[in-house]
Specification:
The complex is a heterodimer of chains A (343) and B (249). Chain A is of the alpha+beta class. Chain A has 5 helices and 22 strands. Chain A has a 7-stranded antiparallel beta sheet, with no helix packed on it. In chain A, strands 13-19-17-18-15-14-20 form a 7-stranded mixed beta barrel. In chain A, strands 2-3-10-5-8 form a 5-stranded antiparallel beta sheet. In chain A, helix 1 (34-43) packs parallel to helix 4 (290-311). Chain B is of the alpha+beta class and 249 residues long. Chain B has 2 domains: 5-85, 2-Layer Sandwich (Gyrase A, domain 2); 89-243, Cyclophilin-like (Cyclophilin, Beta Barrel), CATH 2.40.100. Chain B has helices spanning 24-38, 66-85, 107-113, 118-125, 220-231, and strands at 5-8, 13-17, 45-50, 54-59, 89-99, 130-135, 142-145, 160-163, 167-171, 174-177, 182-184, 187-191, 212-217, 239-243. In chain B, strands 5, 6, 7, 9, 10, 12, 13 and 14 form an 8-stranded mixed beta sheet that branches.
Chain lengths: 343, 249
């Protein structure tokens, strides 16, 4: 069990999202930064979609009533374990009775705390994600409060092995980010000048930037005619432009439908950067093709596959029957010999 | 294919746009196509979101290319063209409503605004089933089509901060009800005791987009009875089937 002594500014239980109910108006929710969230889970030997804590801007203080393994990925909130600094993007052993203290995000915006076995809250419509606006899922449908006690799932992860993410897989969070955008579905309702404005300007993230969406401020994007449409569906990353001409990028808790024109969509692999950006940071948009976007998704999935292989190398070796492939990899300066049995 | 457009919505989204207006025919086509496409849900196509006039198809481009997906959908579209010509059965979910009083504080305003008596408003509101064009805004919130212009009433100038779950309202020529407590500017004419959204239930949602809702007037006493049944999980919604005729829907 984990006790939230201080919950942090806005800390919720999240997983890969509540997919499959958007036809009923149920938002997907889920981790805002799927890369940091997924990495944290893989580091502790969880499946990629186990429930973890998502902390925003200011982290919490937690007491562990069990010995376990954790990983912190995403924003660097200067975590202290029993007063000792611990690094993000690696698995850390926690002794029973330990206290883990986070402070303000030094870089990035959201930190993920994954615990071996995952945070055990009831599955609601197939997911453990919290959607606070309808009080659905997570811990009692809300952000954590002081004194909340969280259960941990059965620990089936890897034991004892020190694991950390190779540096090339650790993102650096900048205050100026560029995001690739695939035009559509309503780019034809903007003037050519309006589309050019989107790609040639920089936008500042406003104070209205939360799990639902990021409102940006900058040069006005010109519509051809009206900015309103008969509502249609909103996908993650959709760039809505209401009549005021300022873009809003739709995030995890977005409504399922919306009545504003959508000039384009920030591609999925780039949303991780926006999820770690804060009010006042600068965003630039770059146009990209569908092929580029699919390639970016393929690369992201490939990284997860490599992480999984790295962290499960000892497991894979056991059932090795002489067939398969052999890799020599270096993780954090240490060499590993990995044999992969392909199924 | 008859003006249907395939538009990108990110690398994992394809919008199938049937039209750009609110139209019963367009909407029926949306739901027919969604129904057939839902049979293909799996690793490649993983979610479908029907709206007033379009479908958003979520897919994994590493399992099926956009071109292959469009090809599959075009084959389904050929089928739905002929389906539409057939007689389609309407699935109707009955929504019992206690009109007026504390449950419907704006019933008198709606009546006055349209030069009708409150009873006439109720009679018109319950006179035929409404097509669920889309579910959105909040979980389980139905956007209904086909309300009579005779009871159309503009929204409140200042939205209410808290509207109780189950409230039935009118906004312009739209009608619907709030499945959960939320803010809103609709004119409230009554309340239903039934839950359209129960996250803990095996079937969390009472109806699907594409089905029809029929409002039926009940007394306050009947409201209390159903309310209790809902509370202990003993209420089962009344479902009906009607052949689609030439009604004004």
């Amino acid at each position: 069990m984990i006790t939230a002594i201080k919950p942090g500014m806005f800390t919720t239980v999240q997983d890969g999202g509540r997919w499959g109910y958007q036809a009923y108006g149920m938002p997907v929710a889920g981790a805002m930064d799927r890369y940091a969230y997924g990495s944290a889970n893989l580091l502790v030997g969880n499946s990629c979609d186990a429930a973890a804590l998502e902390m925003t801007m200011l982290g919490g203080t937690f007491r562990f009533d069990v010995s376990t393994s954790i990983a912190i990925c995403g924003a660097d909130m200067g975590a202290l374990l029993n007063g000792m600094e611990i690094r993000p993007w690696q698995a850390v052993q926690i002794a029973k009775g330990s206290e883990l203290v986070f402070s303000y995000a030094l870089s990035g915006c959201r930190a993920y705390l994954a615990v071996q076995g995952g945070i055990d809250v009831p599955l609601v419509m197939g997911s453990r994600s919290t959607y606070t606006r309808a009080s659905v899922g997570g811990f009692q449908g809300r952000a954590l409060r002081p004194g909340d006690v969280l259960s941990i799932g059965e620990q089936q992860g890897l034991q004892g092995m020190a694991r950390s993410l190779p540096t090339q897989f650790v993102p650096r969070y900048e205050t100026e980010i560029s995001l690739r955008v695939l035009l559509g579905p309503q780019n034809d309702l903007f003037t050519a000048e309006g589309v050019a404005t989107l790609f040639n300007s920089s936008y500042v993230i406003s104070s209205e930037a939360d799990r639902m969406g990021y409102r940006l401020e900058g040069p006005k994007i010109q519509h051809l005619g009206k900015a309103d449409i008969v509502s249609d569906a909103l996908c993650q990353g959709a760039v809505q432009v209401p009549a005021h001409g300022m873009p809003i990028v739709m995030m995890a808790d977005r409504a399922t439908t919306g009545g504003y024109t959508k000039i384009g969509t920030v591609i999925g692999p780039d949303l991780t950067k926006l999820a770690q950006a804060k009010p006042g940071d600068t965003v630039r948009f770059m146009t990209c093709t569908d092929a580029d976007a699919v390639e970016a998704l393929r690369s992201e999935r490939e990284i997860y596959r490599q992480m999984h292989q790295m962290f499960n190398a000892d497991k894979e070796k056991k059932g090795f029957d002489g067939q398969g492939r052999h890799f020599d990899i270096t993780v954090d300066g240490r060499k590993f010999s990995v044999k992969i049995k392909e199924r | 294919m008859d003006g249907i457009r395939m538009l990108p919505a990110g690398e994992q989204g394809l919008v199938v746009e049937f039209g750009q207006t609110i139209d019963s025919g367009i909407n029926s086509r949306v739901h027919q196509t969604a129904k057939l496409l839902n049979q293909k849900i799996g690793d490649a196509i993983f979610e479908i979101v029907p709206t007033y006039r379009s479908l958003l198809v979520y897919f994994n481009p590493l399992r099926i290319t956009r071109a292959e997906l469009i090809q599959q959908i075009e084959m389904i579209l050929v089928k739905t063209e002929s389906y539409l010509a057939e007689e389609v059965q309407k699935q109707v979910v009955v929504i019992p409503v206690c009109y007026g009083g504390d449950f419907g504080p704006d019933l008198h305003f709606v009546a006055q605004h349209n030069d009708l008596s409150p009873d006439e408003v109720i009679r018109i509101h319950t006179s035929h089933p409404y097509q669920v064009y889309m579910i959105g805004f909040t979980p389980g919130f139905p956007y209904l089509g086909g309300m009579s212009e005779r009871i159309a009433t503009p929204r409140l100038e200042k939205p209410r901060i808290k509207i109780p779950a189950g409230s039935v309202g009118i906004a312009g020529s739209q009608t619907g009800f709030y499945p959960m407590e939320s803010p809103g500017g609709w004119r409230l004419i009554g309340r239903t005791p039934i839950k359209a959204f129960d996250p803990q239930a095996l079937n969390p949602f009472l109806f699907d987009a594409g089905q029809y809702l029929q409002f039926e007037a009940i007394t306050e006493e009947e409201y209390r009875v159903i309310d209790r049944q809902v509370d202990v999980g003993e209420y089962s919604p009344v479902l009906r089937c009607h052949a689609k005729g030439g009604s004004g829907i």
